[in-house]
Amino acid sequence: MADTYSKIYIYVIFAVKGRHSLISKNWDDELYSYITGIVKNKGQKLLRINGMPDHLHLLIGIKPDLSLSSLIRDIKSNSSRFINEKGWINGKFEWQQGFGAFSLGHSQLTSAITYIENQKEHHKKSTFQDEYENFLKKYNVEYKPQYLFKAPE
Q1: Model confidence pLDDT, tens digit, residues 5-62
Q2: Which residues lie across from 52 on neighbouring strands?
Q3: Which of 13, 42, 57, 101 is the one with CA 20 to 30 A from 109?
Q4: pLDDT per residue over 65-116, tens digit each?
């Protein structure tokens, strides 16, 4: 086929290793800009990013020629290195293994963007664990609760 046309939207969630609250509001904008650059340099489009001190939410427009796993691996490894080089935390910063990824249709973008933008308000009422399990249930993802979260170390 001469041309490929697609609109693939993926909602991604991943957490700080041990779910420690290490992402400071003092530098989250710089981190978000850095991650946006990673996504852009991979030829993809970051539609929205936001999070809490212990996890991030990303809405990505992804092209069909890129592996989602490799993109998230690059985001996590490069942003970890960036945080560590900046010396923003005592010790070594790491993301927890794995991530959640959920496909969205074009008609769902506005509500997903609003949800991401309102993370701080949302988490006044709900924990990250509750939020993540709700995503898994909403998308009918089978999981074993005992393996879902590693408790803070």
Answers
A1: 889 999 999 999 988 999 999 999 999 999 999 999 999 999 999 999 999 999 999 9
A2: 55
A3: 42
A4: 999 999 999 999 999 999 999 999 999 999 999 899 999 999 999 999 999 9
Q: Whole-angstrom Cα distance, residue 22 to residue 53?
A: 5
What the chain holds in terms of domains, given with CATH numbers, is 8-148 (3.30.70.1290)
Q: Which tokens belong to 115?
A: 């949800």
Comparing C-alpha atoms, which of 90, 91, 95 is closest to residue 31? 95
Q: E strands along 1-140, which residues? A: 8-15, 45-52, 55-62, 100-104
Strands (E), the chain: 8-15, 45-52, 55-62, 100-104
Instruction: Copy the structure tokens of residue 100.
Output: 């959640």
CA distance 3 to 32: 32
Tokens 């609003």 belong to residue? 114
153/151 Cα distance (integer angstroms): 6
Taking the C-alpha atoms of residue 124 and residue 119, their distance in angstroms, rounded to an integer, is 9
The answer to whether 9 and 103 are in contact (CB under 8 A) is: yes
CA–CA dist 47, 44 (Å, integer) = 10
- Run of H or E residues at 122: helix 119-122
